[in-house]
Design brief:
- The protein has 138 residues and is mainly beta.
- The protein is built from one helix and ten strands.
- It has a seven-stranded mixed beta sheet with strand order 6-7-8-9-4-3-10.
- The longest helix has 6 residues.
Length: 138
């Protein structure tokens, strides 16, 4: 069964020919806090060739806390952040778990960039944590 999802208004949709993400994590870097309106973001990684995208998207390019150049795509109509692509990992696409039709399919296995999280952040104590971009065991 493919994984599907899209933006809030439904204009931008995607379908992924995969059973599960390669990896899913919650990120608390400062950029993700902007994207998540103050929270971290839950992100699922997939092989880019498995993803089919329909509809319009706008891309904003910036440099992540890791130093990677990132291309972040969102719906130009409703503004929903949907994808990220990192130049150092050209074969992967990162999907915001909140855009999945079934968010249970993107259950995070780790939390990263916890050193950037505010003191009030709700971080799942059962997940491995990484102060920076990686968590033990991921």
């Amino acid at each position: 069964m493919p994984i599907s999802g899209g933006c809030l208004c439904g204009q931008l949709r995607y379908e992924i020919a995969a059973e599960a993400p390669i990896l899913a994590r919650v990120c608390w870097c400062r950029v993700c806090q902007y994207i998540g309106a103050g929270s971290g973001t839950a992100n699922a990684m997939f092989a880019k060739e498995t993803v089919t995208i329909t509809g319009k998207r706008t891309t904003y390019t910036s440099t992540a806390d890791s130093g990677s150049v990132m291309h972040r795509s969102f719906c130009p109509d409703c503004g929903t952040p949907v994808f990220s692509e990192a130049e150092p990992r050209p074969r992967l696409i990162i999907v915001r778990v909140g855009t999945l039709d079934d968010p249970e399919r993107g259950k995070p296995v780790a939390t990263i960039w916890t050193r950037s999280a505010p003191s009030w952040a709700c971080i799942d104590a059962t997940l491995p944590r990484g102060e920076m971009g990686t968590a033990p065991g991921t």
